[in-house]
Specification:
Blueprint: E1 7-11, H1 16-27, E2 31-36, H2 39-50, E3 58-62, H3 68-81, E4 87-90, H4 105-136, E5 141-146, H5 159-179, E6 184-191, H6 206-215, H7 224-235, E7 246-249
The structure holds NADP nicotinamide-adenine-dinucleotide phosphate.
């Protein structure tokens, strides 16, 4: 129960890695605020968490994390309801397959917004609550940003996503420096290939799956909970001396 007495917020908690992270945090006692655009998906995650506990641990807050106004309302809610936040997981993200020479400006902006601007907006608004609270009470407080293997090695046909995720890794370092005086740790986790809605289409292509197996030391695609376990570790007090780091969870892709 590493997260009892802990208030955590997970963006993109309605599916995939975000959902697995929210389930894991709640299973260890955290109260979790689930954020995403689709209320129904968030409610499904919340029901899964709450059906096994007497006092509900999960609540939903539908919001678009690329929209400054939505993020302002989210921060206002957290401030009014709890006056504090201990764990923030910036997980929402997405991409499309495209090439630089044919990419529209809108496609570029969409991918920068959902993967990088969202991390800035949410960290700014909720980091303020976390740092104010840290002046009143010293305890484990952490932010974990979900980056990607593509932030280390540019992926085929995802130049916009590769650029945004490299940005997330370096933004994490800047934020870690800025929030260190408050004892707030900031790290990123870079998943390799995990089976989620994001990769569903690609993973239906046998050639793509064989390429992943060939290029991954562990010879398989990862599961969302295998990524979530590392995110949750980085958020926990077990990682108390780690800040500004990126944790690569790629099944050994980069060593091949
Ligand atoms: N799966 C992989 O292999 C892999 C590899 C490397 C990195 N990642 C990263 O892992 C993170 C989670 O992805 P996933 O694989 O779990 O995919 P996923 O199942 O598609 O999850 C992404 C979540 O983000 C939410 N989201 C998207 N845009 C949003 C917005 N503007 N505002 C609020 N929420 C938004 C989506 O819900 P709504 O559409 O309902 O808002 C969705 O639940 C992403 O940052 C992704 O880039 C994944």
């Amino acid at each position: 129960m590493r997260f009892s007495q802990t208030i955590a917020l997970v963006t993109g908690a309605g599916s995939g890695i975000g959902k697995a992270t929210a389930l894991r945090l709640a299973s260890e006692g955290a109260k979790v605020i689930l954020v995403g655009r689709t209320k129904g998906k968030l409610e499904d995650t919340a029901n899964e968490i709450n059906r096994s506990v007497r006092i509900p641990l999960a609540e939903v807050f539908p919001a678009d994390v690329t929209d400054a106004e939505d993020v302002r309302e989210l921060a206002e809610y957290v401030e009014e309801q709890y006056g504090d936040l201990h764990v923030l997981i910036n997980n929402a993200g997405g991409s499309s397959n495209t090439r630089i020479l044919t990419m529209s400006e809108q496609e570029w902006e969409y991918v920068q917004n959902v993967n990088l601007k969202s991390v800035f907006l949410v960290s700014k608004a909720l980091g303020k609550i976390m740092s104010e609270a840290a002046k009143r009470e010293e305890r484990n407080r952490a932010i974990v940003n979900v980056a990607s293997l593509s932030g280390h090695q540019a992926g085929a046909e995802i130049p916009h996503y590769s650029a945004a995720k490299a940005g997330v890794i370096n933004f994490t370092r800047s934020l870690a420096l800025e929030l260190s005086p408050f004892g707030i740790r900031v790290n990123s986790v870079s998943p390799g290939f995990a089976k989620t809605a994001l990769t569903e289409q690609g993973l239906q292509n046998d050639k793509f799956v064989r390429a992943i197996q060939r290029n991954t030391a562990l010879k398989r695609v990862g599961r969302p909970d295998e990524i979530a376990n590392v995110i949750v570790f980085a958020a926990s007090s077990e990682a108390s001396y780690m800040t500004g780091s990126d944790l690569l969870v790629d099944g050994g892709w980069l060593i091949k």
